[in-house]
Write a structure and sequence with these properties.
alpha/beta, 257 residues, Rossmann fold, 2 domains
């Protein structure tokens, strides 16, 4: 399947986890890829290149607007365009509001929300000129509902959905679309750390996994990066040309409760 042949996708936070899974899916569909992230770039590049597409990496720190500008300029310089923008990069910190470090609040808002604004404002003019584009923001179920001790993350993800809707309205009469995907629990390294912490306390890894899922996700199964990649690919397809401003949750029933 090469429905994205000739397109270039910039995926932030894509050296591991969800972002890397999305990059794999888009490359398999024929897109050239620009990876970004602080993980093992060499390993990620080698993995995505197996699909036969051109792949590059840029190490921009998405908390810095000037580095975001350099990232978008790099993608356009290497491939001539950013046709698909996937804003996936994110960080997390957990603490009650009154104990939440102000600097952590600022960094979470910068990377989880402001970075998507900056990449979008920089990539959108080129999409308009070429008369085609796809912007997909990887939000979270925490863009739709809240959990205690995650004030900055929840605020940023709610904000990301608001940004998604505004961009969708501003591009509504063009062939550029903007949508958000809202994953539930995905078995990323960060989530595995939470399971390991529970398992260390209880001595039962299987119970730790079950209990984490049972608190929020009725399916008792993790969403996979591959499933999220397939959804992003659909949103990039012609079939999704009238999906605009959506917040599409893939969460095992989390927000249905």
């Amino acid at each position: 399947m090469t429905i994205l042949k000739g397109k270039t996708a910039l995926v932030t936070g894509s050296t591991s986890g969800i972002g890397l899974g999305i990059a794999h899916c888009l490359a398999a569909a024929g897109a050239d890829i620009v990876l970004n992230g602080f993980g093992d770039a060499t390993q990620a590049l080698e993995a995505v290149r197996q699909h036969g597409q051109q792949v590059r990496h840029h190490p921009a720190d998405l908390s810095r607007p000037e580095e975001i500008a350099a990232l978008v300029a790099f993608a356009e310089g290497e491939f001539g365009a950013v046709d698909i923008l996937v804003n996936n990069a994110g960080i997390q910190h957990v603490a009650p509001v009154e104990e939440f470090p102000a600097e952590r609040w600022d960094s979470i808002l910068a990377i989880n929300l402001s970075a998507a604004f900056h990449t979008t404002r920089l990539a959108l003019p080129g999409m308009r000129r070429r008369n085609w584009g796809r912007i997909v923001n990887i939000a979270s179920v925490h863009g739709l509902v809240a959990s205690a001790q995650k004030s900055a993350y929840v605020a940023a993800k709610h904000g990301l959905l608001g940004l998604t809707k505004v961009v969708a309205l501003e591009t509504a009469q063009s062939p550029v679309t903007c949508n958000a995907v809202c994953p539930g629990w995905v078995l990323t390294p960060l989530v595995q750390q939470q399971i390991d912490a529970r398992a260390q306390a209880s001595g039962d890894p299987l119970a730790a996994r079950h209990d984490l899922l049972a608190e929020k996700q009725p399916s008792l199964e993790f969403v996979t990066p591959e499933q999220l990649g397939a959804l992003v690919l659909f949103l990039c397809s012609d079939a999704a040309s009238q999906v605009r401003g959506a917040a599409w949750n893939m969460d095992g029933g989390w927000v249905a409760q």
